[in-house]
Amino acid sequence: MVKRKAAAAPDAGAGHCSKRLKTTKTSTKGSPPFFWNPNHWELEKKITDGVSIQKRKATRGQLVVKKILEMLAKHEDDEDQDHRPIEIRAVTSLPKNNRVIQPLFYALATPNSSHATAIYPFFPLGDLEEWKQRAFDSKNKKPVPESHIWRLFLQLSQALAFIQGVLGPDHSAHTPLLHRDIKPANVLVASNGTTYPSFRLHDFGVAGEYQRRSRTEAQCELRCGTFEWQPPENPRINTAAADIWSLGALVHFLAVGQAPLGLLAPYIRAQVAAHGNQHPPGVADYETPLRYYAARVPRVVTPINLSRADQRARGLAPRQNSDLALYVHQYSDELNRWMAKCLESMARRRPSADRLVRGMGTVARGMLKKMGGQPALTDIDIEYE
């Protein structure tokens, strides 16, 4: 995936940070505070250079996720500047709830003065892509049940409405945020004791403060996040509507098996040919040519309510990609309609997170009850500590 860091930090959660190592421990409702001592843990699995799964030495089976985060640069003329990592500033400014993942612990200036350490709970089911691959793709490309998709749709709509400051116990208690990097890897799947999983938003590493901006301000370019999961107006993604498109892209991914994009390789060949066998001039604004093309390839939305005959008639199937099922499973008209609303090419036509919670949420609850009864409605409400 093509991802870039944010160029500027959000203003959310500002506060004083001393020069001494600062630690913060947190606790979940009904559980004691979590204490981190590196000597009591050992490496279980390395995920990336900065992310690993750690196992407690004295307790078999207890796992956590350790992240090394880059702290913000210090300015000599501003001793009170909050130089905590963007992710820590963002998530710790939010009230605790069951839709956004908070760190169990974080420490500044460790392992060195320019980095911080954050400890997060471990989710055995993995992120959205891992879960889909393990539970469905690897099992003869089984379709994801519609009930699961409705649950993701509603729960992440609640998460967006919450971080944007339109849902929650006290709207004025925290600075509204934009996530700006919603994609399968940043959604974790949680077991809740039923066959209907829950979904939680994670990784606020490029989050930014959300303000209702003028039309001119909304047109400002911002190249951060993962371009394949961003709307057609990117790099103008500093809006709530951009996060809504990315949510629709997750629904599309679960139903279709891929992001709502056109084919990248033919697009690159066509662009290079159109510019005299050279990359277009705009490539210079991106770190690599691939980042440019991932941002610019046309967004293509596949309907998810078509029969196999209709898919063949439209030339959508059988699909030639061996990683995908020959046909897209036929989902309900209701799910297709709400997905399409989120994936509108024009940002102003997309529903707000609040409208999704209230409008789509009502439809989702009805569909879930019809499909699975009360168990399908487990953990369907956002709750706060």
Automatic annotation (TrEMBL):
Keyword line: Kinase, Transferase
Tagged with keyword Kinase: yes
An example molecular function term from Gene Ontology annotations: protein kinase activity
Signal peptide boundaries: none
Record keyword Kinase present: yes
GO cellular component: cytoplasm
Positions of region (Disordered): 1-33
Domain of life: Eukaryota
Pfam families the record matches: Pkinase (PF00069)
Ranges for domain Protein kinase: 41-363
InterPro entries: Kinase-like_dom_sf, Prot_kinase_dom, Ser/Thr_kinase_AS, Ser_Thr_kinase
PANTHER family listed in its UniProt record: MITOGEN-ACTIVATED KINASE KINASE KINASE, SERINE_THREONINE-PROTEIN KINASE NEK6
Identification of the protein by name: Kinase-like protein
